[in-house]
Specification:
Elements (H helix, E strand, L loop, with lengths): L7 H13 L2 H8 L3 H15 L4 E4 L2 E4 L1 H25 L5 E6 H18 L5 E6 L15 E6 L7 E14 L2 H4 L6 H5 L3 E3 L5 H9 L12 E2 L3 H9 L4 E5 L4 H6 L8 E14 L8 H10 L10 E3 L1
Parallel strand pairs: 3-4, 3-5, 7-8, 7-9, 10-11
Antiparallel strand pairs: 1-2, 5-10, 6-9, 6-10
Length: 306
Amino acid sequence: MTSRLPPLYALRAFEVAARYGSFTVAAQNLCITQSAVSRHVKTLEEHLDCPLFERKGPKLALTDAGRLLAQELESSFNAIENACATARRPKGTLRIKAPSTLTMRWLLGTLNKFQTANPTDQVQLTSAWMDVDSIDFRNEPFDCAVLLSSGDFPKDWGFIKLFDEWLVPVCAPSVQGREHWSIEHLALAELLHPSRDCRDWRRWLERQGQGDAVDWNEGKRFDTLEFGIAAAAAGHGVSIGDLALVGEQLQDGSLGLPIRTAVKTGDSYYLVWSQRHSEHHLLARVRDFLLANVPVIETRSIQMLE
């Protein structure tokens, strides 16, 4: 069966050329000549007996067959690269993917404590910006991940809930002043959004039946919860924050709660893993350590709306 496959070098040259829409850029990436890329693509077209590019002068456009092949090859080469990364990694290393704000505000410090207590164990943490937390165990080189989710996971995943998400308004003490705010006061403030679609402020307001009391579409927008909280601490307005992740700043006084109402969103932080990685010797130990070190949420004098 393998004798019927096209040459690997031809498949790779085509995939890179299709990705960039240029033989010249593909040649630069592959460290070969442009004419070599052209020959490789021609070899592939002859092998498949169909055109993969429509050649219109210097411009390249994929045919329908080329577009389908390019999509499949991109996924396949990613899988090969991840398989090689797995083979290269130090024996026994547990690879974890996590969202950037959670990494900075809890996970990095917690895993550092684990490493200090277990110096011979190797945990490799990768922080990633994700608008919606996700992991593709088939195409990404990770053994497990910490994700914010509703808990609806594929059947072949294992998972355990770490802690719930509670949204609460936060701002600098200089912005808040000495009094606690009303919704009317909030309507006059500069809102800071930790996501571009403003979903966190919208959820917090709607959960209290106040969706129309504040124009939650207005205000400055950021890519991450971390940026929103940092802007709030710097006095630029009021951000929505996760009560579990702002505890230290509430204690040291760099952040305050202008409205002391926290809303449970229904999402939680989960440790998830593929069942094919479930036998990893470090997974159970790291899982138990994370569970034993979840953030302590201070709820005194805060109205908690479930």
